[in-house]
Amino acid sequence: MNFVEANGAKIPAIGLGTWELRGRTCARLVEQALRLGYRHIDTAQVYENEREVGEGMRASGVKRDEIFLTTKVWTTHFKPNDLERSAKESLARLRLSEIDLLLLHWPNPQVPLAETLGALARVKQLGLARHIGVSNFTVALIEEAVAACPEPLVCNQVEYHCYLDQTKVREACARHGMAVVAYSPLVKGRIKNDRALLRIGDRYRKTAAQVCLRWLVQQNVAAIPRTSKLERLSENLEIFDFELSEDDMNQISGMGSANSRLTDYGFAPKWD
Fold first, then answer.
1. What is the 3-state secondary structure (H, E, C) of 12-28?
2. Active-site residue flag, 47
3. Residue in 47, 160, 163, 183 annotated catalytic
4. Residue 271, in any domain of the structure
């Protein structure tokens, strides 16, 4: 497995996103993914599946210290006392003693960012999380967060795929030694019939999805595709045996625009 290294963290380049996976399905997919070779699992408090993710981890038989687990604190728990308590509740649901990476799920302008980051850093200092980071942060928020946080932030997890240009956010992360972790990297399945990606894939005997994931990994971006199909799990891992040419990379990058965002809620920040 390839890794993306950032501020002391080694994040496996491909992970399993678990948004919308529930109950037995979730536990079984996490177990299968780990047995197939995945070492990075992504969940969140608001997904309401942390318990099942923990079950899948234990059922897989893979050693705990080989798994990189991310979870995220929901915005209603950003006050300092709430944040620490909610991190402990996540650990109890997962039945783990520490989280590998704990993220702030979305920005919350109702609570001063410095207070929230102080609490997030404290969770790390208490040994509840090995690494900390943010999710859905804009360039301005990344700058503010890095300046205010007493501990290094290792990543910004954002929507990123070949239809969405995230150059500004990537550059801001690079300035601060932070990784980018891409959610919805396969545009929720919409890229599988993309003619340009299929054409490129034909040359490498790869699917459009594999081309898209490879494009991210070659930019030193970690990706967390979500799937509920076992056959897709192995397909998403099989991207380390080929390399896209510079022309292919540029062609795919040229497909991106600033207005192809899938995840945009009323409470979202003003995007770059």
1. ECECEECCCCCHHHHHH
2. yes
3. 47
4. no
